[in-house]
């Protein structure tokens, strides 16, 4: 939330037991972006998403289901039509981290 990256916003949503793919990411991202703008008067230009616990078989599902939710949140806060092909005003880096299986 600040220039030195020492202040953070945090939010949580409860998911059903065993549910691995997030279904509340759009709402959480809208909240996070809104809070950032309240504190800094502008939206961030870059966002890093650290997605932990992704199994090899889930990578594609995460990218096909979770990533569009995050992109939709950016469109929503910037009031960009969902069908627009214009480039999103916030750059996003998504880092998927493998689930450790023993």
Report on this model:
This protein is an alpha+beta fold and 102 residues long. It has a domain of 56 residues. The protein is 34% helix and 17% strand. It is globular and about 45 Å long.
Describe the SSE topology:
Elements: H1 25-40, E1 46-54, H2 59-77, E2 91-98
Parallel strand pairs: 1-2
Helix pairs in contact: 1-2
What's the short story on this structure?
It contains two helices and two strands. The protein is an alpha+beta fold. It has a domain at 43-98.
Total E-strand runs? 2
Mean pLDDT: 86
- Percent range for β-strand residues: 15-25%
Structural class: alpha+beta
Helical fraction:
25-40%
Report the radius of gyration as a whole number of Å. Answer: 15 Å
Spatially, the strands of the biggest sheet line up as 1-2
- SSE series: HEHE
Roughly how many Å apart are the termini? Answer: 36 Å
Low-confidence stretches: none
Determine the number of helices (DSSP H or I, runs of at least 4 residues). Answer: 2
General form: globular
């Amino acid at each position: 939330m600040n220039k030195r990256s020492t202040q953070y916003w945090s939010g949580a949503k409860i998911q059903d037991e065993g549910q691995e793919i997030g279904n509340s990411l759009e709402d959480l991202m809208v909240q996070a972006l809104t809070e950032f703008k309240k504190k800094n008067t502008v939206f961030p230009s870059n966002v890093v998403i650290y997605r932990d616990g992704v199994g090899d078989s889930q990578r594609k599902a995460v990218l096909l289901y979770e990533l569009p939710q995050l992109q939709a949140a950016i469109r929503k806060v910037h009031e960009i039509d969902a069908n627009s092909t214009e480039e999103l005003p916030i750059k996003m880096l998504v880092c998927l981290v493998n689930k450790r299986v023993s």
